[in-house]
Structure formats: structure tokens, C-alpha cells
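Our preliminary data section would be incomplete without showing what the modeling component actually yields. Below, a chain of 306 amino acids is followed by its predicted structure, encoded as C-alpha cells that our downstream tools consume directly.
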Amino acid sequence: TLFESFCGGLVAPESDNNLWNYKFTWNPRNVVLAGQGGTAKFIQEGNYKYIPYNKIFSRTEFMDVKGYGRFEGYANRDSLKYRSVYGLDDVDTLYRGTLRRVGFSKAWNMLIELGMTDDAYIMEGSDKMSFRDFTNAFLPYHPSDSVELKLMHALKIDQDDIRWDKLVELDLFNPHKMVGLANATPAQILERILSEKWTLGPDDKDMIVMYHKFGYELNGEKKQIDATMVCLGDDQTYTAMAKTVGLPVAMAALSILNGKIKARGVQLPITKDVYLPILAELEDFGVVFHETEAAYMDYANIVFAT
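Predicted structure:
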């Protein structure tokens, strides 16, 4: 009756040293443009739901992973197209989302509101802009108010708001750091700014977190199993992202060469003869799911982030 799937590429706790609790573990451009591929679509208790881009990061769901704390999930683009692929055409709830640490989405939404994630136009003179000039370009002119004051007014935030500290940490008000990109879009400039702060250091470790919820009915009673997986990287090169993306492909390739997988051509890994042996082998590399029985998801009483 229910399937929800969340996954996030995050920074490991021991390398989590910024206010956003985040560093790039994948293509930075995809992070900046997240949510812009179209309205998020999913089904919830038999009702079709849609979240436009400007609302995605203000509609998040909390979940806790034992030993790693609390996370928030925001909706991915189109969950509905996976119904037939997963054999879940009659499911009441199907939702796919991305995980971040609590507070990330609310802060990221400020950058969206300002217009910094827009990739549709080029900013004039971008190569000669400072980070401060870039920020000021999205704010109204005022003969005396500072960029900082104008931004606080525009976003209706106070100086003691943690979101303000997050903006300051990104050096968005720094008049000395230069963009240095010619004919750049706001999204490209934002990526340049974030890359200074969110790139993994040589000794940093990343972390992949997955959280799946399976709801089913047995003897007239609704039940739920939650499955979680946390995979930690070794360093900047041997990352958890590399393990979880690369190892299954390598294992599948070897299985084809050794005749264990008979199918040919482009295949989806959705048959047991493909995924069961690979999941078993992945456990040797620390990719292990832990299942627990949970109370059935009751959306009437769920706590959403605001």
C-alpha cells in the first residue's frame, strides 16, 4: 500500500564542519539546479500531489536514522513514472525524495527566493563581479542601506537567525572575492561560490544515507517496515558515492562476463537474479540495509518541517 524511498549524498559526521551540514559529493551543478526539472509529482493515500519548484524546499518530511540523527527529505521530480517499473501500479502512496540534514532546505529556499539558482539568463559583467556584487544584484537599490540590511529586509530574517549565519558563512557579502566567470548565469555563479566552501577536503569523508518505507496490509491490519542504510567514504577519492554507484555496476559486469547474468542489452536491475547476488556482495563493502518494524505512516499526524 505504501512505498517511500529517500536517498542523500551527505558529509560524514566527522567531516561535518560547516553550518549547512553539507558538502558536494556529486556533480555540484546538479545540487544547484535540484528541483528545477519540473513539478514534483507523487501519490499519497490515493491522492495525486504536485509541488512546484518554488515550494519544494518548504515541504519536507523528517526521519531519524539510528546512530546518525535526524534528516529531512524533499520531493524528487516525478515519482509516478516508477509505479510500473517497480510493479506498484495499485499502490496508495509512492514518494521518492532527497535527504539533507534538518535546516538545509529552509536555508536553501532563501537562495531560490533571491533568484540565485536561476540558470535561464546571463548576468552582465559577471567576470568583474565580486561575491558582494552578485548578492546585491538581486536586491533593490537604496542610497544608504547596506547589502546586508537590504537582504534581511527582502527575506524577512533577523541577524540572530541561523539562516543569516549560513549566508554569511558562504562569503556572499565579501567585496574582495571575485566571481571570475564571463557570461555566467546566476546558477553558475552560485556553484562557483559554493564550491569554495563545500568541496570535500583531502581527508574529508562523505556519507550516503538511504531510507525506505514499505507499507503493506496483513490480515486486515496495516503494517510498515523501514529499511535504512548508511555508507561512509574513506577519503576524498574513495567516497561512499563511488562505492554505492560504482560497485554495483562492476559486480554486474563481472556477473555478465562469468555467465551468471544471462540477460543482454540495456537492462534495469529489477529482477532477483540481478539484484539479490549484488546486494549480498555489497554487504562485504559495508553497504548493508537494516530493517525494523514501524508504525504505519499516518499522514494525518505526520510532522512536517516548516
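The chain has a mean pLDDT of 95. The chain has two domains: 2-107+202-305, 108-198. Preliminary results of this kind motivate Aim 1 of the renewal.
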